């Protein structure tokens, strides 16, 4: 990565991610950020080591569990050779298929590759295109492509909005975001993201509730609402 | 900007595993080399080494599972699935990449995550394999190393914030920076791996930086 990533998930998000207790769709955005960010890779390694150490230091009761039975059950099963175990581990790591939109090809981070390969149809509106990824009921997860020199209509969020820049550059009132930068907006934030004349942008978007558009005309455009959520 | 957002979780359990004091277990850790035990399991199908690993980790994983699931049946299912993976895939453990306990913890976390997914019958989407890289990212130069920090600055600006650190990190920071002990001494005193001492220092420094800046960025 030629530039330094400036917007990282906070420490508590990284901790909950390492622990495995984040909601899956939020975890996905954090995992994809980590794939792109050496700094957060190191922190995640450290957090995981710390949690594992805490696991071993828990007090344990001598209890009534029938451990012998479980132990025998397990050792009755065959062990895998290194090769077999490695092959099994790699089954999910297929070769990366690029995402194609607007005649452009993008390779997405490892965490997104399997899901992105199953993205829904691209829906185009003006310079913007969006494709859904499989997600649970509480979140809307999608790829968002913004052509050069395009503004996303001003909106507020009824819930949490996470945007991870996967490629290109986007700017809003607060700053400039490049590949790897993770933006988190709470319901109070209003912003108008846009691309510059020389660079388009591909993002991962994770939304916990529909967006509400502010400006007169776009507010009437109900389909826009449908489009983004 | 990114700190205060309350991100919903897909379960209702309390956050980090609380730091616990168990003098008994510290002695055991000091005397046991689980990395070696796992290597014996992998190379020689050593059943007694596995039985030792099992008798140490199974009850601890169960306690972790009870905390996460709040339910004994699921906790035991997690233990069984985790320890079965440890048995079958011992050959994948690489002692040069970290502690045995870290490897086992990540297996348990992934098992638990996928158990919850199945329960919610969301089979087509995010799995543990998507969220956590199987193996290691290429090694990077650590950019948050304590050596970059001026000790005087640490004392003046950061020490007042030590109280806000999680107990496990505070314990290490106080010994290293206030009592000026070496990393090895702290590792011996607390009976935690040297790598964990370094991890906790890096995490604490990042946290303190967050406290000073108001945000990570
Ligand atoms: Zn980061």
Plain-language structure description:
The complex is a heterodimer of chains A (229) and B (217). By secondary structure, chain A is an alpha+beta fold. Chain A has helices spanning 11-19, 24-36, 38-56, 67-75, 82-90, 110-116, 216-220, 222-228, and strands at 99-101, 104-106, 123-125, 128-133, 140-146, 155-157, 161-172, 175-178, 182-185, 190-191, 201-207, 211-213. Chain A has one domain (1-55, 97-229): Sandwich (Jelly Rolls). In chain A, a hairpin with a 6-residue loop joins strand 4 and strand 5 (140-146). With 217 residues, chain B is mainly α. In chain B, 61% of the residues lie in helices and 0% in strands. The model of chain B is unreliable at 1-5 and 8-31 (pLDDT under 50). Classes of the chains: A alpha+beta (229), B mainly alpha (217). Chains A and B meet through helix 1, helix 2, helix 3, helix 4 and helix 5 of A and helix 1, helix 3, helix 4, helix 5 and helix 6 of B. The complex binds zinc ion (ZN).
Round the Cα radius of gyration of chain A to an integer and report it. Answer: 21 Å
CATH superfamily of chain A: Jelly Rolls
> Overall pLDDT of chain A, averaged?
84
Number of helices of chain B: 10
Number of domains of chain A: 1
Provide the succession of SSEs of chain B: HHHHHHHHHH
Gist?
The complex is a heterodimer of chains A (229) and B (217). Chain A has 229 residues and is an alpha+beta fold. Helix content of chain A is 34%, strand content 25%.
List its salient traits.
heterodimer, A: 229 residues, alpha+beta, Jelly Rolls, seven-stranded antiparallel sheet, three-stranded antiparallel sheet, 25% strand, B: 217 residues, mainly alpha, Rna Polymerase Sigma Factor, Chain: A, Arc Repressor Mutant, subunit A, 2 domains, globular, disordered N terminus, binds zinc ion
Question: What's the topology here?
Answer:
The complex is a heterodimer of chains A (229) and B (217).
Chain A: H1 11-19, H2 24-36, H3 38-56, H4 67-75, H5 82-90, E1 99-101, E2 104-106, H6 110-116, E3 123-125, E4 128-133, E5 140-146, E6 155-157, E7 161-172, E8 175-178, E9 182-185, E10 190-191, E11 201-207, E12 211-213, H7 216-220, H8 222-228
Antiparallel strand pairs in A: 1-2, 3-4, 4-5, 5-11, 6-10, 6-12, 7-8, 7-9, 7-11
Helix pairs in contact in A: 1-3, 2-3
Chain B: H1 23-31, H2 34-44, H3 47-69, H4 72-88, H5 100-119, H6 128-131, H7 151-158, H8 167-178, H9 183-190, H10 194-213
Helix pairs in contact in B: 2-3, 3-4, 4-5, 8-10, 9-10
The structure holds zinc ion.
């Amino acid at each position: 990565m030629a530039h330094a990533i400036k917007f990282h998930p906070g420490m508590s998000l990284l901790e909950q991610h390492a622990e495995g207790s984040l909601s899956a769709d939020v975890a996905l955005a954090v995992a994809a950020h980590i794939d792109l960010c050496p700094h957060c890779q190191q922190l995640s390694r450290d957090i995981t080591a710390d949690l594992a150490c805490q696991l071993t230091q828990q007090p344990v009761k001598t209890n009534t569990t029938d451990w012998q039975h479980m132990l025998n059950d397990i050792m009755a099963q065959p062990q895998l050779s290194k090769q077999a175990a490695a092959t099994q581990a790699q089954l999910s790591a297929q070769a990366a298929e690029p995402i194609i939109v607007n005649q452009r090809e993008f390779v997405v981070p490892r965490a997104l590759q399997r899901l992105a390969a199953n993205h829904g149809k691209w829906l185009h509106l003006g310079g913007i295109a969006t494709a859904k990824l499989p997600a649970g009921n509480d979140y809307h997860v999608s790829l968002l492509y913004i052509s050069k020199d395009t503004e996303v209509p001003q909106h507020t969020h009824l819930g949490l909005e996470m945007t991870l820049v996967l490629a290109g550059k986007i700017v809003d009132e607060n700053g400039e975001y490049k590949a790897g930068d993770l933006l988190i907006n709470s319901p109070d934030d209003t912003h108008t993201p846009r691309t510059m004349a020389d660079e388009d942008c591909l993002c991962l978007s994770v939304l916990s509730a529909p967006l509400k558009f502010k400006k007169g005309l776009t507010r009437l455009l109900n389909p826009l609402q449908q489009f983004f959520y | 900007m990114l700190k205060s957002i309350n991100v919903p979780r897909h379960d209702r359990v309390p956050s980090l595993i609380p730091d616990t004091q168990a003098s008994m277990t510290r002695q055991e850790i000091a005397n046991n080399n689980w990395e070696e035990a796992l290597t014996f399991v992998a190379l020689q199908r050593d059943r007694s080494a596995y039985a030792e690993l099992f008798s140490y980790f199974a009850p601890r994983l169960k306690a972790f599972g009870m905390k996460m699931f709040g339910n004994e049946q699921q906790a035991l299912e997690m233990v069984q699935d985790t320890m079965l993976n440890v048995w079958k895939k011992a050959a994948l453990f690489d002692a040069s990449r970290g502690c045995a306990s870290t490897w086992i913890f990540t297996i348990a976390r992934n098992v638990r995550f996928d158990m919850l997914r199945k329960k919610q019958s969301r089979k087509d989407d995010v799995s543990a394999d998507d969220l956590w890289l199987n193996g290691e990212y290429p090694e990077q130069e650590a950019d948050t190393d304590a050596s970059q920090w001026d000790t005087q600055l640490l004392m003046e600006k950061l020490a007042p914030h030590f109280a806000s650190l999680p107990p496990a990190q505070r314990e290490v920071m106080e010994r290293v920076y206030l009592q000026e002990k070496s990393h090895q001494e702290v590792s011996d005193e607390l009976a935690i791996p040297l790598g964990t001492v370094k991890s906790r220092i890096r995490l604490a420094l990042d946290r303190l930086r967050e406290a000073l800046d108001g945000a990570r960025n």
